[in-house]
Amino acid sequence: MTTGAPIGLKRFLLDDSHTQSIGSGLASAIDDLAQASRKIAHLVGRGSLAGMHGSAGSENIQGETQKKLDIVSNDVLLEATTWSEHWSGLASEEMDNAVAIRNTIGQGGWLCVFDPLDGSSNIDINGSVGTIFSILPSPKKADELTDADFLQPGTNQAAAGFMLYGPATVLVLTTGDGVNAFTLDTGTGEYLLTAPDLIVPGDTREFAVNMSNRRYWSAPIQRYIDECIAGRSGPRGFDFSMRYAGSMVADLYRLLINSGIFLYPWESRDPDRAGKLRLLYEANPMSFIVEQAGGAASTGTQRIMDIQPNNLHQRCPVIIGSKNEVERVERLCAEAEPAS
Ligand code: AHG
Ligand code: MN
Ligand code: MN
Q1: CB half-sphere exposure, 123, CA atoms < 13 A
Q2: Is the pTM of the predicted complex or chain greater than 0.90?
Q3: For a substitution probing ligand 1, which of 276, 281, 313 has the most ligand atoms within 8 Å of its CB?
């Protein structure tokens, strides 16, 4: 009997009629992360009552000040994955090195790489934040794992997703068979399918970028944004809107629901740094999601998911969203620096 009620996450993952068969191991692994996110959502939702606002007084390996909630979210995810038979190793924005899971439960087949709390500058202002995750096959048993085993290109991802802790908590997921969004019912604790088969339209009239950094961008990125801003009186012939949340999860959810292009490009103020966002736990999972929704994700010169990583915390430029706009940026980059 069908009730017409929205489908829960676990059933969605295990029922072949809704998704390609991914196996119960991967489905349960994803459910571990969903379970952790319920706790994080609860803490985020309590705001300053949870006592989690403000700095933790420490820095991560990238020299960024850690917020209390960055660390607590990391701990919640570690707890949920360490005491589960599905995982063999974990890496995170908030941990210098990967950790192998060596406990009595067993050695699972998956690696998880995550940004426990994305957009953490939004915590104290009651803005949207989130968790981003990428699931990769584990090439070895936990006993033999090193950081190098996590350095897999985005094309290796078995699943990727993010949880957006906004007015409602939403989980966006791909297992390589389209993109689906689930809303957390805070009454029952269940994630229910509320936005099946998300598609990012090829065209858009909305962009998301930190405009205050314009003077540091390369010429083709400046030109692309300048032409958007010129609107109907410029070469594009129509007006754009700008929206920027300062939290990649919120900006990417917006473009998955509507349309849009999000850019965090290379900047000349720190020329040796490829960009701000991290490849393994920000750019790759978001690229997998957006490509699965029909969009594109590029550095300007290369498909992000084709990058061979050489460091757990490496960064890359991110130009992601509506396909025709991403391709326009790539054309401008190619014109500025033709391949030899
Ligand atoms: P995190 O909080 O995990 O360090 O990530 C913040 C990222 C991303 O969420 C956002 O898009 C970007 O930083 C915002 O950077 P600016 O404040 O430089 O615009
Ligand atoms: Mn982040
Ligand atoms: Mn983070």
Answers
A1: 29
A2: yes
A3: 276
pLDDT, one tens digit per residue, over 210-226 is 999 999 999 999 999 99
Ligand 3 centroid–CA 65 distance in Å is: 10
* Any ligand 1 atom below 6 A from CB of 66: no
Amino acid (one-letter) located at 23? G
9-195 homologous superfamily: Fructose-1,6-Bisphosphatase, subunit A, domain 1 (3.30.540.10)
**Helix, coil or strand: residue 126:** coil
The predicted pLDDT at position 52 comes to 82
Instruction: Give the 3-state secondary structure of residue 234.
Output: coil
In this prediction, the residues of the chain whose per-residue pLDDT falls under 50 are none
Nearest ligand to the CA of 119 is 1
How confident is the model at residue 2, as a pLDDT? 54
Residue corresponding to tokens 């999860």: 249
Distance (Å, rounded) from C-alpha 334 to C-alpha 17? Answer: 43
Question: What pLDDT score was predicted for residue 116?
Answer: 98
65-114: per-residue pLDDT in tens?
A: 888 999 999 999 999 999 999 999 999 999 999 999 987 776 789 999 99
Three-class DSSP category at 309: coil
CA 203 to centroid of ligand 2, rounded, Å? 26
The CATH number assigned to the domain with range 206-335 reads 3.40.190.80
The domain spans of the chain are: 9-195, 206-335
How far is CA 315 from each of CA 62, 66, 279, 309, rounded to the nearest angstrom?
10, 18, 5, 9
